[in-house]
Amino acid sequence: MKFLSLFAFAIIASSCSSQKIDATLSNFEDDRQPYAQSWTGGIPGSGSGVNLFLPFSVQSVESIEMVYYKGMTTSVIDPEKGADKYIIARFQTDFNRKPDMNMNLDAQKEYGNKPPKTDKFPFELEDDEAVVKFARNGKYTYTKIKGIEMKSSMDLPSRPQ
Fold first, then answer.
1. 133: left (phi over 0), alpha (psi -120 to 50) or beta
2. Which of 13-40 are b and which e, b meaning 16 or more Cβ less than 10 Å from the residue's Cβ?
3. 3-class SS at 3?
């Protein structure tokens, strides 16, 4: 009986911690293939990130709550300018960003530094996969995108607009 209750607890705990994928998209037309492109600002401290181009219509932007990709999450989703082929999920990375902390031999002068984030990523994804969280009629659905192509990096004079 003790084993059975422990087994039931393990099943319940594992089902609460993982998200359910409702659909998977992997076959795309050649001109609508999802891709990612990293960028780095040219000025020290201007930041860096990854733009993920997903083949959804502009109308779907309003229903997208969150995008998960390579251990990162974002809710910054923009339509592609001048076209209705893609939406862009914008992820910020820590590379080329000024650290917002005080480093000092005196520990009291370091008071106020924020500890690093240790949030557990809710999905196990391959490098060419992302998950999009949609909100429809008060319910959430999760769609996995497979086959994301990584394009060469953009080195920019400043942060992309």
1. beta
2. eeeeeeeeeeeebeebeeeeebbbbbbb
3. helix
State the pTM of this model. Answer: 0.74
Of 122, 135, 121, which Cα lies nearest the Cα of 15? Answer: 122
- The length of the chain in residues reads 161
- Residue 1 lies inside a defined structural domain of this protein: no
Widest distance between CA atoms in the chain: 65
Nearest Cα to 134, choosing from 22, 33, 35, 29?
A: 22
Q: Range with the lowest mean pLDDT among 5-9, 35-39, 57-61, 67-71?
A: 5-9
Residues 6+ apart with CB under 8 A from 6: none
Say how many domains are in the chain: 1
Any domain includes 114: no
Q: Report if residue 131 sits inside a domain.
A: yes
| Domain extent at residue 138 | 20-98+121-153
Residue 53 buriedness (CB in 10 A; 0-12 / 13-18 / 19+)? buried
For residue 13, being part of any structural domain is answered with: no
Per-residue pLDDT of 106-116, as tens digits, reads 888 878 777 76
Tens digits of per-residue pLDDT, 130-152? 999 998 888 999 999 999 999 99
